[in-house]
Write a structure and sequence with these properties.
The protein has 324 residues and is an alpha/beta fold. The protein has helices at residues 12-21, 37-46, 55-61, 76-85, 100-113, 127-137, 171-174, 176-187, 275-287, 297-315, and strands at 3-8, 27-33, 50-52, 66-69, 89-93, 117-120, 144-154, 191-199, 208-215, 220-228, 233-243, 247-250, 255-259, 265-269. It is built from 10 helices and 14 strands. The chain binds nicotinamide-adenine-dinucleotide. Nicotinamide-adenine-dinucleotide binds next to helix 1.
Amino acid sequence: MTLRLGVVGAGVMGRKVAAAAAQIDGVRVSAVVDRDDNRATALAGTHDTHAHESIADLVDSDVVDAVYIGVPHHQHLSACLEAAGAGFHVLIDKPLCNTLEEADQIMAARDAAGIKLMVGFSYRFRAEWIAARDAVAAGEIGAPRLVVDTIIEAETSTPGWYWDGAAGGGVLQLQSHHCFDRLAWVLGERFASVGCQVSATAAAAEDIAIINGTTGAGTLVSINLGFGRSYRSASRATTIIQGELGHIVIDTARNVSVASGDGRLRSLSYADDDWLLQEVTAFVGLCTGADGAVPGAEDGRAALACALAATRSARAGGPALSLF
Ligand SMILES: NC(=O)c1ccc[n+]([C@@H]2O[C@H](COP(=O)([O-])OP(=O)(O)OC[C@H]3O[C@@H](n4cnc5c(N)ncnc54)[C@H](O)[C@@H]3O)[C@@H](O)[C@H]2O)c1
């Protein structure tokens, strides 16, 4: 059986997902949807398929079994409801949506339609994060105590809506969901509290955020997000997880080192791992009945709850006491 995949949103992520899907046996990119006709036509041409203006067109033409939704996230709710209503399985990119009520609507639509829905929490498919999660689960570092998770990105040419607060832009909406999900997943713990401070340049959504949190098991978490939009440079990301017996470091180059309680240092490198191929493969497996856990709408809702709490904290002035 061939899974017919429609790509909704022919932007940065839609193009990458289509390229990944084209490498997987048993999947065909069978339609491209974008309200920008040039983008839709160009990507459809690359995959020898047809361009469409809306998800509604896909219903009428019966050309897809599942869709990847990669439109700006203030449109995630309507796209998910439309796709579920049509009976299409859904891979929705993060963040799931904008409010907890929207998340509940998406879950209700999923359940009513009996479709599969996966959220594109890409880090769960990155080999270095899987290695870190396995090391924590195996008790190699003992009970987690502290996490410091830092992502610094710098890109002058990001899509405009990334920095439009009204369209859900800013690092809290765009990036913090990844951190909340990957840390809860790697620790096997849910967040219990979140505080946040942000800064922004004039007339733009926040591009810097310092988030602190605690998990239900008492691990202290620091998430630091910086996005430079006035210069261009390679991303820098480092995550350190300290436990009672050792620690794990994940670096920008996708190396993982695990210092365990018996004094051993284990180093692993995953520079060549194709995480998006793994992510799309997992979605195809979900649609075709394969076993295996994937991030679902409940996980998207949990990350959203954290991001909304961070936003409320930042608006309230952050968790710090003023010295002046
Ligand atoms: N998983 C990851 O690592 C990752 C990385 C970057 C972005 N994202 C997420 O992917 C999603 C897409 O981001 P992007 O960077 O590809 O954005 P983008 O702006 O590059 O692409 C979005 C596309 O959607 C189209 N579009 C907008 N509204 C539409 C509609 N109603 N119907 C059809 N097409 C419509 C636009 O014309 C555009 O081509 C966002 O949710 C973003 O947060 C995920």
